[in-house]
């Protein structure tokens, strides 16, 4: 738990409430919007809230860190259900909750039908007969019944209607008393959720957030029918925070893949320009602060220096740039490089360098560390390449120009 944001960073949060089976095992988590680490309620359940939950879960924490190998339920607003906003993740381990506030018309039915056809599982949240949501019962995998608000006289009919669809599992939610839990047992509800079992937990982390300008610039570059990969790579590489999010997003897409990422180019190719566009759109909806220009320039200077030193140790310059960038970002957001490496789909040599400081990339990082702390004797003992003073000045000029270029474009 991070008590306060470091300069140039912000705290990001996501709520997580367990869903239990009849044996008391946690089989899923509902992910909830939380605006602060001490928030008890969501405060809002709109498109902004859903976008922030998605972005924070998949690109700040990493889905594995939030739910592990369990299923996650995510609230969906009309914009996501109809395809106005595209879901930037696959159907694996995710259940889409149709909020009770969504007006179920033909457009929503068509959208949910399309999502179900793609393999997404559908849950109907706070289901009430007569609200129009019964139109989605043939598509549903889960129906959530709020026993705190349910009218006992109507419960039999609602349960009977759900049981006409054999694949539907009923989630009893709003459980606050032993009597409500006993009612769940009497009806044979497969899943349960509520304060009597477990209250939501708020997960909090420090995050370096890309600037809105960079996001808009990236969306502009991606909007062209003939999107230029080199331009996309240039925009991403100039923003350490955006680089980190692209890596985490590629991790969510490539879960279980055997390939590991060793460069920003490889991450972008793995993720695909279409997915990059989807994440960038969500980041615009998720409107947050940016790092300072000085922090950005310092991080890029370190990465550029690592890139230059790499050949002296037989290390790949692109991999060295990434390793240097990740260590700089780790310092900015108060995390260890090893903790970040654990969340990213990095190649083995980068992972070993970040976690244990081994290999040729580990040597690169040690030399750059020694130079930055002024230990020139350690630099001389380990590095036989060109004098680094001129290289550092060139790296500083390059990073300053890279940061200024985006600021001047505003």
Helix run count: 18
- Low-confidence segments, ≥5 residues, pLDDT <50? 284-290, 405-410
The CATH architecture classification of the largest domain is Alpha-Beta Barrel
Q: Return Rg in Å.
A: 24 Å
Mean of pLDDT = 81
Structural class: alpha/beta
The SSE order reads EEHHEHEHEEHEHEEHHHHHHHHHHHH
Order of strands across the widest beta sheet? Answer: 1-2-3-4-5-6-7-8
The profile of the biggest β sheet is: 8 strands, mixed, barrel
- What count of structural domains? 3
InterPro entries: dGMP_Pdiesterase_EAL/HD-GYP (IPR014408), EAL_dom (IPR001633), EAL_sf (IPR035919), HDOD (IPR013976), RNase_Y/CdgJ (IPR052340)
Protein name: Diguanylate phosphodiesterase
Domain HDOD: 208-392
Domain EAL: 1-214
Give your account of this protein's structure.
This protein has helices spanning 47-61, 63-67, 78-81, 106-117, 152-163, 178-187, 212-223, 229-237, 240-253, 264-271, 273-285, 293-309, 317-332, 337-343, 348-356, 359-372, 376-382, 388-408, and strands at residues 10-21, 26-32, 71-76, 94-98, 121-124, 142-146, 169-173, 191-192, 201-207. With 410 residues, the chain is of the alpha/beta class. The protein has 3 domains: 10-205, EAL domain (TIM Barrel), CATH 3.20.20.450; 208-285, no CATH class; 293-408, no CATH class. The chain has an 8-stranded mixed barrel with strand order 1-2-3-4-5-6-7-8. The chain starts with 9 loop residues before the first strand and ends with a helix. 45% of the residues are buried. This is Diguanylate phosphodiesterase. Residues 208-392 form the HDOD domain.
């Amino acid at each position: 738990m991070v008590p306060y944001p470091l300069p140039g960073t912000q705290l990001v949060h996501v709520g997580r409430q367990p869903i239990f089976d009849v044996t008391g095992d946690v089989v899923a988590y509902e992910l909830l919007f939380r605006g602060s680490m001490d928030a008890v309620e969501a405060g809002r359940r709109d498109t902004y809230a859903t976008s922030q939950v998605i972005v924070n879960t998949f690109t700040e924490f990493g889905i594995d860190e939030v739910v592990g190998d369990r299923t996650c339920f995510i609230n969906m607003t009309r914009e996501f259900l109809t395809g106005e906003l595209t879901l930037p993740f696959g159907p694996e381990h995710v259940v889409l909750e149709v909020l009770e506030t969504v007006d179920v018309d033909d457009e929503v039915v068509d959208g949910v039908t399309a999502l179900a056809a793609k393999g997404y599982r559908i849950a109907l949240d706070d289901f009430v007969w007569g609200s129009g949501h019964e139109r989605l019962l043939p598509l549903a995998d889960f129906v959530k019944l709020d026993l705190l608000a349910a009218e006992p006289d109507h419960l039999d009919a609602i349960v009977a209607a759900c049981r006409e669809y054999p694949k539907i599992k009923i989630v009893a939610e709003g459980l606050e008393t032993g009597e409500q839990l006993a009612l769940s047992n009497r009806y044979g509800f497969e899943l349960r959720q509520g304060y009597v079992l477990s209250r939501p937990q708020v997960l909090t982390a420090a995050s370096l957030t890309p600037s809105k300008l960079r996001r808009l610039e990236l969306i502009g570059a991606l909007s062209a029918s003939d999107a230029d990969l080199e331009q996309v790579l240039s925009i991403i590489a100039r923003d350490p925070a955006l680089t980190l999010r692209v890596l985490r997003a590629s991790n969510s897409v490539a879960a279980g893949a055997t390939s590991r990422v060793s460069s920003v180019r490889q991450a972008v190719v793995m993720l695909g320009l279409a997915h990059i566009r989807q994440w960038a759109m969500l980041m615009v909806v998720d409107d947050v602060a940016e790092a300072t220009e000085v922090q950005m320039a310092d991080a890029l200077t370190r990465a550029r220096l690592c890139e230059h030193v790499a050949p002296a140790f037989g290390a790949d310059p692109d991999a060295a740039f990434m390793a240097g960038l990740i260590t700089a970002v780790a310092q900015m957001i108060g995390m260890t490089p090893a903790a970040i490496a654990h969340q990213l789909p990095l190649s083995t040599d980068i992972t070993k360098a970040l976690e244990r400081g081994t290999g040729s990339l580990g040597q690169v990082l040690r030399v750059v560390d020694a130079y930055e702390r002024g230990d020139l004797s350690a630099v001389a003992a380990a590095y036989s390449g060109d004098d680094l003073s001129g290289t550092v000045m060139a790296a500083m000029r390059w990073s300053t120009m890279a940061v200024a270029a985006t600021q001047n474009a505003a």
